[in-house]
Amino acid sequence: MLQENQQNKTDVIVVGAGPAGVSAAVTVARGSKNVVLVERGNFAGAKNMYGGVIYSHAAQEVFPNYKESPIERFVSTHSYVIMSENDSTIVSYKNPAHNENAFIITRANWDKWCVEQAIKEGVYYAPNTLVKELIVKEGKVIGIRTDVEEYYADVVIIADGVNSLLAKQIGLRKDIKPKNVFMGVKEVIKLPSEVIDQRFGLINQTGCAMELVGGPLKDLFAMGIIYTNKDSVAVGLGVALEDLKNNKTKPYELLEKMKKHPFVSDLIQDGELLEYSAHLIPEGGYNCLPKLYTDGAMVTGDAAMLVNNVHFEGTNFAMISGKYAGETALEALAKNDFSQNILCLYKKKLDNSFILKDLRTYKNVVKTLTERTNSIGYYSNKLNEFLEIFTTADGVEKKGKFQKFAKHFFTKR
Ligand code: FAD
Given 3-state DSSP classes, what are the helix, strand and coil percentages for the chain, each rounded to the nearest 5? Predict the structure, then answer.
């Protein structure tokens, strides 16, 4: 690593080759500066998992040729599934003009493809390199220490994901509290492409993204997902760590229950389990944001807790925050000033963007939903109960049924 620079010094080091890191690195390279992208995995994406959907706007902004990546399917149908014990109500949004709003791709493929593009644009890529700690001198970050050596840079961009030991090391972040983090678990289930098309009502290799609430997830702050790949289906859920702890529930048991719900089991019937994975998701939102920069360093993506849990926006926040950090590093290099006076520009860019504007808008959502977890299960049950009555013709007068439903609706909570 860094052989091109005899003093082990470069302009910018980026730690972590996820969506945030690669976007930061490629932005710096496009500004004709030297940048080293360090990744602990033996290839980018090797250590990473997520649900499966990337919003195209961010991909387009950082990699305008993103459609050349190994996309599984574009999302043509976005559905919300409200489950109760055995029944379910589904609300679907479809709009052909909207088909390129988001796409489904595996992280192993996406991260690898992005790094290949970044290398073509001049990023020096160092896989299999675990950064043990940041080198700090007189309060300023000046480099990284790996198992083998020390490397120096004018700016270090921290993009090491949700646990970010590096942001913690320099005091930008504290340990995440269980109430501010979700545990995500996911299975990938193999099914023939034409079976997926038929079960999800898809044509021409378009895809479906589903989010699920209620039923097996009731009483927990949890949400399920089902995303269609070309010839497999991702089934998973995210659940608040605190709820897991308080309810003494294991995430894989919850996923098993969700897979047995008739709505889900019909979709994955006869499928073959290909993989199982788990990962944390920062869910604290605006109220948990760390300080985003210090002398010589900036924090991006999940490391900076930049996730909008309501809209499942993580990779797009990571890519755009990475891009802003890269742009700010270029400004700092142009001015030869790597202090907070210049790096605060990164925060200003985020403040003026959809990222912090949206996080501010949603800043109390997690707290509100946490306090109303039981209500989600309750209203899911009631909606399905109402629709069961509404869709049933059994020779019994309807008025009495609706009166009974209304009485229970208001009194039995
Ligand atoms: P990461 O993707 O975590 O990348 C961090 C990188 O840093 C990794 O490659 C890691 O190996 C490397 N690294 C860590 N420490 C070191 C070190 N010390 N030295 C060297 N390298 C290091 N977002 C969406 O947009 N759509 C979804 O559908 C979606 N679903 C999700 C479902 C689940 C279950 C989970 C867990 C997350 C989901 N997200 C989703 C969120 C999304 O995955 C993250 O927001 C996004 O990956 C953040 O990118 P990042 O680059 O900041 O971090």
Answer: 40, 30, 30
> Is residue 130 within 6 Å of ligand 1 at its C-beta?
yes
Distance CA 93, CA 79 (A): 6
> Helical H runs in 311-353?
315-335, 340-351
Q: Are 263 and 83 in contact (CB under 8 A)?
A: yes
Measured from the CB, is residue 207 less than 6 Å from ligand 1? no
Strand partners, 38: 15, 126
Find, among 305, 179, 180, 185, the residue nearest to 245 by Cα: 179
H-helix or E-strand spanning residue 135 = strand 131-137
3-state class (DSSP) for residue 238 = strand
Neighbours of 15 (CB within 10 A): 28
What is the reported pTM? 0.94
State the pLDDT confidence band at 4, using cuts at 50, 70 and 90. very low
Any atom of ligand 1 within 6 Å of the Cβ of 40: yes
Q: Best of 160, 165, 226 to mutate for ligand 1, by most ligand atoms within 8 A of CB? A: 160
